[in-house]
Amino acid sequence: MTDGWHWHQPDGTATPAxxxxxxxxxxTPQDAGSPWWSDALGDPWRDPxxxxxxxxxxxxxxxxxxxxxTDPDAAPRRGVTSVLFIAVFSALLAGALGxxxxxxxxxxxxxxxxxxxxxxPGEAPAVAQRPPDSLAGVAxxxxxxxxxxxxxxxxxxxxxxxxxxxADGYVITNDHVVEGASGGATxxxxxxxxxxxxxxxxxxxxxxxxxxxxxxNLVPVEFGDSEAIxxxxxxxxxxxxxxxxxxxxxxxxxxxxxxxxxxxxxxxxRYYAAIQTDAAVxxxxxxxxxxxxxxxxxxxxxxxxxxxxxxxxxxNIGLAFAIPINQAxxxxxxxxxxxxxxxxxxxxxxxxxGRNPGGGARLSAVDAGGPAAAAGLRxxxxxxxxxxxxxxEGTDLIALVRKYAPGAVVxxxxxxxxxxxxxxxxxxxxxx
Length: 432
Known about the structure:
Blueprint: E1 7-8, E2 14-15, H1 29-32, H2 80-109, H3 135-142, E3 146-153, E4 156-164, E5 170-173, H4 175-178, E6 185-188, E7 194-203, E8 208-213, E9 222-223, E10 234-239, E11 247-262, E12 270-277, E13 289-292, E14 296-304, E15 320-324, H5 325-338, E16 344-345, E17 348-350, E18 361-366, H6 371-374, E19 382-386, E20 389-390, H7 394-403, E21 409-416, E22 419-426, E23 428-429
C-alpha cells in the first residue's frame, strides 16, 4: 500500500515521493531540447519502472544536417537564366503586337489611339464612281469649254457666261451680255486664265452674240439637237451666276416652245420659243450652255422668271429659259460667216390689238409675193397651229417662225371665217 505519495518496490522498500517540483531540479526545454516537456523526470505520474533516461529530440544546429528528400512529383526548378530569357522574349512580343495594333488603329481612324468612327468602308456605289455618262462625268467633260464673259459698258460693266464653239476661239454668248460694250470683252476660262476678245457680231432679236479670242487649241462643246429633247429630260446649266464662276446646276426640261418676249422698255424686243427648265439659273448665267444628259449643248441660257419687281433683285424660282441650240447655232454661224444674222419670216403682219377672242394669231396684212401669200393665206386669216404646235396669240407665231431656218417648209393650220384650212409655207429670210 502507499503511504502518502510513495511507491513500494517489490522488495518492500519504499521510494520517497517528490513533495514538490523543486525537490528535483526540473529539466528545462532549453536543456532537454523539447518544446513539449519541462520536467519529465520529476513527473509524479511517471512509471517508476521506466528507464531513468529520457530521449529528447536533437536541437537544431547540433549534429549532422538531415538528408534532403526530393518530391518526385514536384516540377523541376528553373534557373535564373531561363526565367530572364522568357521574361525578355515576352516583353518584346508584347511590344511588337502593341505597335502593330496601334499602327492599324492610327491608319484606320486617322489618329493614333483615337476613337474609330463608322464601320468598315465598303465599295463605292456606282453613282459615286462617276462614269462618263453620269452628271459628274458630264460636268467634268463640259466645264473646260465654258467661259465667263466680262464687258465694259456705258453703264458700268456686264458679266455673263459663254461657251467655246470652235477650236480656234469663237465663243457664243447672249447679245444682252455684250450689249452696249465699249470695245471688246474679256473672256475668263475654266482654269482661271484670261484672254481679250473682239465682238464679231450680235443679233439683238435672237439675243445671240459671237466673240473671238486669240487662243489656239481650245476645246469646243459638242452640239446636240434641240428638236430631239423631251419634257422630263435631265439637263445641266453651266455659267457664272452672281459672278460665281464654274458653277453647275441640274434640273429637267419642264416645257418646250415656251414663248419668250423680252427686252428693255423702249429697246429691242426679243422673241424665241424657249426651252423651259427648273435648273437653277441666276443673273450671270446668261449666255452659258444648257446641256443634255450626254453633255451636248441643247440651249443657251438667257432669261428667268421671277417674283421680284426689280430686275436687280430677281432670283431663281425654278423657271429659266434657254434659246434652242438649233436656232442659236444657225444665228452664230451667220454672224461668223457674214457678220450679221438672217431673220426668218412668214411674210405677214400680225394683228397687235391684243389676244384674239377665239385664240390664234390674226394676220392683219400679207406681203405680196411673200411666203404666206404664196401659200394662199390672206389678211384676216387666223393661224392656229404651226407644225402641230398651238398658236394662242401673235407672239407665239413670231417666236415659232424664228426657230426655223430660212427655206424651211412648215405646215400652217388656220381659220377663215367658219372653215378650217391647211397650207404649206416655205419660210424666207427677212429682206432687211
